[in-house]
Amino acid sequence: MPLIELKNVSVRYGEIEALRGVSLSVEAGEVVTLLGGNGAGKSTTLRAISGLTKPASGEIIFEGKSMTGLGPEEIVRLGIAHVPEGRRVFPGLTAHENIMLGASNRSGVSKDQIDQEADAMFDLFSDIRPFQHVLGWTLSGGQQQMVAVARGLMAKPKLLLLDEPSLGLAPVIVSKVFEIIKEIRRRGTTVLLVEQNARMGLSVADRGYVLETGRLVVTGKPDELWNNEDVRAAYLGGHARTAAKA
Ligand SMILES: Nc1ncnc2c1ncn2[C@@H]1O[C@H](COP(=O)(O)OP(=O)(O)O)[C@@H](O)[C@H]1O
Ligand SMILES: [Mg+2]
User: How many Å lie between the centroid of ligand 2 and the Cα of residue 151?
Assistant: First the structure.
C-alpha cells in the first residue's frame, strides 16, 4: 500500500483547469520528485494534498484512508507537512522560534522538549546555527529556506511536501539545500519534492513524474527519465542534456 495515492485528481481555479486527472503515488521511504515548467500544476498538486485547495473530482488516499473533506489542520495532524513556495518565515521571530512553530500540530509534547528538538535541528542545518537567535527578516534567502524546511521537519511528518526549495537561490546554496534533502531521505522521511530544476530534483529522487499543463505525461526512475531523449528535450529543459553528461 502506498503512503499516499492521488486518483484522478482534478483542480479548477474558475475557468482554469490546473490539474486534469492526476494519478500518482508515493511509497513510504521514497523521495519522489514532481517536475514541470512554470504553471504546470506542481504547487496545486501539493496544495490539494495538504487541503489548501479542494479538488473538483478525484480522491486522495493517505495510509489507505480517503482524505476527502478534511481541512488543512486535520491533514497536518495526520502527518503531512507542507513547506510552501517562497520560504515564508515570520520576520519578527528568531530562526529558533520559527522552527519551534513547526511542532504546533503535536500534542502532549512539552515546550522544553520542542525547544530541545529545535536546537537539534541545527545539527542538520549547521549553516544557520550561528543565526539561530537572529530575527527572520535579517536572514538571507537560503537561510530562510533552511528555516522553512526545518520548521516542516519539526512536525515529525510521515510525508514532507517541499515546493521548489531551490527557487531563486545561488548554486552553492542550492547544493546545500539538496545535501539536506539527501540527509532527510537517509533518515527515512518520505518526501514529495516539487522542482523546476530537473537535474537537482532527480539527483535526490527514487522516482520522478513530469507534469505538463495539469497532466502527468511521464514517470520513471531518474535514469530512465534522463536517458529518454524525447523526455529530456521536451520536458527537462534545454540545458538538461549537457548537465546530465557533466
Ligand atoms: N489561486 C489561483 N487562482 C487562479 N489560478 C491559479 C491559482 N493558482 C494557480 N493558478 C493557475 O493554475 C495553474 C497551475 O499553477 P501552479 O500549480 O502554481 O503551477 P506550478 O507550481 O507548476 O508553477 C497555472 O495556470 C496558474 O496560473
Ligand atoms: Mg509552483
Answer: 20
